[in-house]
Amino acid sequence: MTATVSVTGVDKSYRNVRALRDVSFALVPGRLSALVGHNGAGKTTLIKLMLGLIRSDRGEIRVMGQDPAAGEFSARQLLGYLPENVAFNAALTGRETLAFYARLKRIRPASAWALLDRVGLSDAADRRVGTYSKGMRQRLGLAQALLGQPRVLLLDEPTTGLDPALRQTFYEILSELRDGGATVLISSHALNELEDRAEHVLIMNRGRLVVQGTLAELRSLSQLPIRVSLDLAAGTDNAIAAPIGDKTISAAGRRTVLVADEKGKMDLLRAVANDPRVKDIEIAVPTLDDLYAHFLKTQERAA
């Protein structure tokens, strides 16, 4: 599959601060990718480079086959961007603001009104933006990012200030765009939100791309254990399942077994699935939070 965004060997420094160090990755159509890392990891710098707002010191960036820092970057009309901190003219209404951005993208303003309803701003569309709450401004920012059905959508902390219901709507919109072939990149600290949504994860730290891949690939690379918890009938011998797994943890009525991989998990399940002493089984694979912490610690130890 041809990449819509490719980053190859990119370095970027701000005076004596190396913001990015030899970063390479590719983003493809029809996939939602998560860019995660602490503040200062280089996430926002990467997004600015993809938008053509700044130039790299070394390496190559291509967005839909074009150099975003070149003088003629016609693909910019096919990009949607939501910054972490949106800032709009407080004197304009929400509708006037969206009309302004629609004209910049050479889109008929009237075609954008449905977006105001989609992000829950139809009732406030003709109020001045200066009267909006932070969450309402974030909704307006999302609407402008979605103008023109973008083919590449770059979102920096997009759910800041959104209530749970609108977060759900937001991810539904992203799923529709992704299913329609758009490339979606979310930079976020909300790892729990991305757990079941991101098909591709890029973990940054101190300007370096520490690791990238699907959650399954990252779990395999990390070799973090899978926790299988068995709820046991009263009086059950705690030795149950002891022969299987690398480590077991006992508590009243519960036995937690740590297994190394999917094969170990399946071996354990086969061994206990039909045991009448086992009332329930819960499986906990390493979360994105777990993986993030693991890979950052691994990099720090190697440094």
From TrEMBL:
Residues of the ABC transporter domain: 5-231
PROSITE patterns: ABC_TRANSPORTER_1, ABC_TRANSPORTER_2
Keywords attached to this entry: ATP-binding, Nucleotide-binding, Transport
Coiled coil, from the record: none
InterPro entries in the record: AAA+_ATPase, ABC_transporter-like_ATP-bd, ABC_transporter-like_CS, ABC_Transporter_VariousFunc, P-loop_NTPase
GO molecular function terms listed in the Swiss-Prot or TrEMBL record: ATP binding; ATP hydrolysis activity
Gene3D superfamilies per the UniProt record, alphabetical: P-loop containing nucleotide triphosphate hydrolases
Function as written in the Swiss-Prot or TrEMBL entry: Involved in beta-(1-->2)glucan export. Transmembrane domains (TMD) form a pore in the inner membrane and the ATP-binding domain (NBD) is responsible for energy generation.
Family assignment from sequence similarity: Belongs to the ABC transporter superfamily.
Protein name, UniProt field: ABC transporter ATP-binding protein
Provenance organism: Bradyrhizobium zhengyangense
Species classification: Bacteria, Pseudomonadati, Pseudomonadota, Alphaproteobacteria, Hyphomicrobiales
